[in-house]
Structures are given as C-alpha cells and as structure tokens.
C-alpha cells in the first residue's frame, strides 16, 4: 500500500509582506491546501451471488477523480488460496485519470459448499470491503467429466524442456462468459523442494463449448529428478485428474510415491529422457532389498518417454529401511541407473 505524505503549504515571503502591510485586525488566516489524493470510497460486486465457475464484475469507487496517470488500487480476496483475482486482474487495478470508478471482471475459486468470500480494495491509505457468495453448480447440470493430456501412454510421460496440452471436458456446454475450472497441482519427487511443472491456476471453457485447453510447461534445468504430478480439474465437486510423469532428459529411475507396507500405490517410475528409441525400450528392474519386489522387466513403446511400475513391500521389511532399486536399459548405451527410497509408516 503506498505511503502518503501530507504536506501543508506555508505562506511565502510575498504573502508575509502583504500581511505585514495590512492594518491590525485585517489580517486573516491564509488557506491551508490539504493533500487531495482521492481515497477508496467503496467497492461493490455484481451479482453478489454466483455459481462456481461463473464471472462477476467488481467496481471500485473513489472520493474524487483519479490524478494524472490514474490511481492504482490493490484488490484482494480472502479465499482458500487468495488467487481469485489472479484469474482476471492480477492484484492491482488502476482507476483511469479523471475517473472516479473502475469496473473489472473477477473469477473466484470453486467451493464444495456455499461460501462467502470477502473482497478488499485498498489504495491511498484507505480501504473498502464487500463480499461475494459462491455456490457450487448442481452436479446434475454441470460438472467436470474428465481431464486429459495429449501425451501417449498411461504414464503420460513428459520430458524436461517440453510442453503438453491439457484438456478439461465439462458435462454440459459452458454458460455465456465461459466457465472457469480450477486447476490444482501437487508434485511428488525423489528430491525435496524440487521445482514444479507450471500450469495456470484455472482454465476457462468458452461459452457454448464443453472443452477448454491449457498448457503444461515442464522447464529444463540442470538437475531435475523424476516425479509424478497430480493435476486436478475442480468445479466444486469431486475433482477429475491425471498424474503425468515428468522425466529429466537423461535415463533415470525413481520412487515417485511414498513406500508403505501393502500400499497399492507404491509406484516407481522410469524415464527415458530424450534418447531416441525407435524400436521401443526394454528395461530390466532389480530390487537389492530383501522383501521389496519389482517387475523383472518393463517394456516402453517408441512413442513414449517413460513408464510407471508397482513396488511391493512385504510386512517383514522394517519401517525406515532404505530400499535400493536398479534399472538397466537392455541393448542401449544408457547403461544402468539406481535409486533409493525409505519405507515409511
């Protein structure tokens, strides 16, 4: 929020001389010119209740016309992730020079139940609040049917330095103005705090259509472990999702889900990177930890850059055991790679 310094103009020498020349009793107080920077007078939203995915229009009004260059106003929502305004405006709007108000579209997150979200507009040391209520759509009328990625194979393996297209499909055509669907991401990696693939916070399905596209960007950096990323499309109902496999440019193997006793989703992953494999790839797997088993062989088609495999952890393996797995690319100069992971509770 900008700091406003209030200045009081003092009489100059000429004004002082005139005052001294006037008869006693005639001298009067000279006017004080206060800072005339306009303040935020109010903010409103229309409609005040919307269905999840719909658009609303917020208006910010000032106490006086905005100065030359306009007046920036910070806009915030007190929502689940405070990303609502990023959907349409960023976190600052500007009232044009000479205008006393500005209106702009907003989109808010999807909620699973009726939720009132406070909206705050701040500028010039002043602020105003309002609220909008978000109601989830009737699932019988509108919901997310599926989320797809234009990548072949069940693993949906994406190589570092490339992009993929995601598609959200709705059960019914989007309303006028389009329907915004939240996109949520959770990355699982062999290294802690590794950078995540990039996706937008939402995708707008155009009016009258049932599909909207978005880009998944997997930037290339010098060190990047193999990892699964859960991407969910959410409209306030149980989300539809995919778990693409993100692989570095080199041949690698990793444990991409937490290892637990008897867990059905103990998953390991193989990444072929950007190596050419026109006839496909055969990977031989070995567990060097007693009680931990993996498939003996995984075959990966030529149009795919990786695959997932299951890992079985016997109850006899103590919690805290370090598991070591080896992957050998048969008939390839890529050779053999290894990975380790710890059995957790």
Summarize this structure as a short list of keywords or feature phrases.
345 residues, mainly beta, Immunoglobulin-like, signal
Order of helices and strands: HEEEEEEEEEEEEEEEEEEEEEEEEEE
- Relative helix content: under 10%
Number of strands: 26
Mean pLDDT: 86
Structural class: mainly beta
Question: Which overall shape is indicated by the principal axes computed on the Cα atoms?
Answer: elongated
- Relative strand content: 35-45%
Distance between the termini: 47 Å
- Would you tell me which CATH topology of the largest domain applies? Immunoglobulin-like
How many helices? The count is 1
Which sheet architecture does the biggest sheet show? 6 strands, mixed
- In CATH, the architecture of the largest domain is Sandwich
- Report the uncertain regions: 1-34
What's the CATH first level of the largest domain?
A: Mainly Beta
Describe this structure in words.
The longest helix has 9 residues. The protein is built from one helix and 26 strands. The protein has three domains: 96 residues, Macroglobulin (MG2) domain (Immunoglobulin-like), CATH 2.60.40; 104 residues, Immunoglobulin-like (Sandwich), CATH 2.60.40.770; 91 residues, Immunoglobulin-like. Strands 10, 12, 13, 15, 16 and 17 form a six-stranded mixed sheet that branches. It has a five-stranded mixed sheet with strand order 2-8-7-4-5, with no helix packed on it. The chain has 345 residues and is mainly β. A hairpin with a 6-residue loop joins strand 25 and strand 26.
């Amino acid at each position: 929020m900008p700091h406003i310094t209030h200045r009081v103009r003092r009489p100059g020498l000429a004004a002082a001389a005139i005052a001294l020349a006037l008869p006693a009793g005639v001298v009067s107080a000279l006017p004080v010119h206060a800072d005339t920077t306009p303040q935020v007078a109010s903010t409103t939203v229309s409609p005040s209740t919307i269905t999840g995915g719909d658009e609303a229009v917020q208006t910010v009004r000032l106490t006086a016309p905005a100065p030359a260059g306009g007046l920036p106003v910070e806009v915030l929502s007190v929502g689940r992730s405070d990303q609502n305004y990023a959907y349409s405006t960023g976190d600052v709007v500007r009232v044009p020079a000479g205008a006393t108000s500005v209106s702009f579209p907003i989109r808010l997150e999807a909620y699973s139940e009726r939720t009132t979200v406070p909206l705050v507009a701040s500028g010039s040391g002043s602020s105003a609040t309002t609220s909008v209520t978000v109601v989830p759509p009737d699932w019988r009328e509108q919901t997310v049917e599926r989320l797809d990625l234009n990548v072949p194979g069940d693993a949906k393996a994406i190589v570092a330095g490339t992009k993929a297209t995601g598609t959200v499909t709705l059960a019914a055509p989007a309303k006028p103005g389009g329907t915004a669907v939240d996109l949520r991401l959770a990355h699982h990696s062999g290294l802690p705090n590794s950078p995540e693939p990039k996706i937008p916070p939402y995708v707008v399905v155009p009016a009258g259509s049932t599909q909207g596209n978005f880009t998944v960007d997997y930037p290339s950096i010098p060190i990047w472990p193999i990892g699964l990323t859960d991407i969910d499309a959410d409209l306030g109902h149980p989300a539809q999702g995919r778990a693409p496999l993100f692989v570095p440019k080199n041949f690698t193997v990793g444990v991409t889900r937490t290892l637990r006793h008897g867990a059905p989703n103990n998953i390991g992953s193989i990444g072929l990177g950007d190596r050419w494999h026109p006839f496909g790839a055969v990977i031989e797997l070995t567990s060097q930890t007693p009680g931990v088993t993996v498939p003996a062989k995984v075959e990966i088609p030529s149009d795919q850059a990786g695959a997932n495999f299951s890992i079985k952890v016997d109850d006899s393996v103590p919690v805290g055991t370090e598991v070591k797995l080896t992957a050998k690319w048969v008939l390839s100069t890529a050779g053999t790679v290894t990975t380790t992971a710890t059995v957790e509770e």
